[in-house]
Amino acid sequence: MKLMFASDIHGSLSGCERVIDAFERERPEKLVLVGDILYHGPRNPLPERYSPAEVAAALNSMKDKIICVRGNCEAEVDQMMLSFPCLADYSVLWADGTEIFVTHGHLWEPESIPNAAKGSVVVSGHTHIWKAYTKNGISYINTGSASLPKEGNPPTYALYRDGEFSVKCFDGKALGTLHLK
């Protein structure tokens, strides 16, 4: 199974286009959006080519390929714009026998996910800083941000394939990799 994870598009058409281009290049089964899709939030600057309506239209065109969780910037009005559910606080996915708990990261600190078991993976966004590490038998992936990365990082996404997570730049270069098996 192959899954792509992206977070924190924040209404940036440029960020959304990067995500869609990577999705087309990587050819995963699903795109898992880890929150903060349309709105940039009051603490963030306006992202490049800010156009929430165009981002919604672009993502709606691939609605059957998207799984999404709510970020701290999502609201009911965002759901009205999107043709796929975006207001769940978390999602639990299974890939190749591995439990993957997906949440934006604003409700729970990644290392305090309820009932996270050894061998599972927690995927989050929110901080706009990519990470990939294992602690106490649980793997943690932060996808970074597709449009507003912080601490000098490039825009990033994460990819799962055959028991391995990689955090990648949008040019395809891997920045960090976790082998789960």
How would you summarize what this structure contains?
The chain is of the alpha/beta class and about 180 residues long. It is built from three helices and eleven strands. The protein has one domain: Metallo-dependent phosphatases (Purple Acid Phosphatase, chain A, domain 2, 4-Layer Sandwich), CATH 3.60.21.
Mind explaining what this structure looks like?
The chain is of the alpha/beta class and 181 residues long. The chain has one domain (2-179): 4-Layer Sandwich (Purple Acid Phosphatase, chain A, domain 2). The protein is 16% helix and 31% strand. It has helices at 13-26, 52-60, 76-81, and strands at 2-6, 30-33, 66-68, 90-95, 98-103, 121-124, 131-135, 138-142, 156-161, 164-169, 174-179. The strands form two sheets. The chain has a six-stranded mixed β-sheet with strand order 3-2-1-9-10-11, with helices on one face. A hairpin with a 2-residue loop joins β4 and β5. The model has no long low-confidence stretch (mean pLDDT 95).
